[in-house]
Amino acid sequence: MASLVLFLGGNSRAAVAHTCSATDRQFMSVAQLNMAALGSLSEDYLHGDAKPAEVIDQTQSAILGLRNTDPSDPSLSKTRAILRAMFVEYTRAIRADARHKNPGQYIYRAYGLANFAHDVLSDAQPGLMRRGCDVTPLL
Questions:
Q1: Spatial contact of 27 and 69, defined as CB atoms under 8 Å apart
Q2: Is position 2 within any domain?
Q3: Which helix (H) or strand (E) holds 112?
Q4: Sign of CA dihedral 104, 107, 111, 116
Q5: Is residue 126 assigned to a domain?
Q6: Cα 41 from Cα 1, distance rounded (Å)
């Protein structure tokens, strides 16, 4: 009996049924736009050309933008939650840095979450691509 269970369900990974709905595309567009905007503003901040409040405003805008999406694909839905958490941690890092505190723990978590989102999207990429959704710009 145990060998039958191992044989039939040994990989313990259920197949994910991907979608590529209008709400999935909307999420991908919003996420891509917010990642690009935050990346650019973060570079400006690191070079002294942007104020902490500007970066924080952008992260808050990104969180709100993602909150206003509702992807139907399970991998994109998971990525949405991860990205929202990443933006929260990045906000905490900028606030800490602005107060001359060590932002390291928040940056560490933000980058860990970014890597997790990347892994989720990388795993989902073939299935999403078959449905017509290209997540390459988010990777």
A1: yes
A2: no
A3: helix 104-131
A4: positive
A5: yes
A6: 58
What is the residue type of 45?
Y
d(CA 72, CA 81): 13
CB atoms within 10 A of CB 135: 22
Domain containing residue 29: 20-138
d(CA 38, CA 20): 25
Residue 100, Ramachandran bin (φ over 0: left; ψ between -120 and 50: alpha; else beta)? left
DSSP assignment of 55-90 equals: HHHHHHHHHHHHHT----SHHHHHHHHHHHHHHHHH
Q: What is the pTM of this model?
A: 0.84
For residue 119, give every residue at least 6 positions away whose Cβ sits within 8 Å of its Cβ, in sequence order, or none: none
**What are 77-131's pLDDT values in tens digits?**
999 999 999 999 999 999 999 999 999 999 999 999 999 999 999 999 999 999 9
Token pair, residue 13, equals: 């990974």
Does residue 12 fall inside a structural domain?
no
Domain total in the chain:
1
Would residue 59 count as lying in a domain? Answer: yes
Residue 65's alpha-carbon distances to 3, 7, 30, 32, in angstroms, are 48, 44, 7, 11
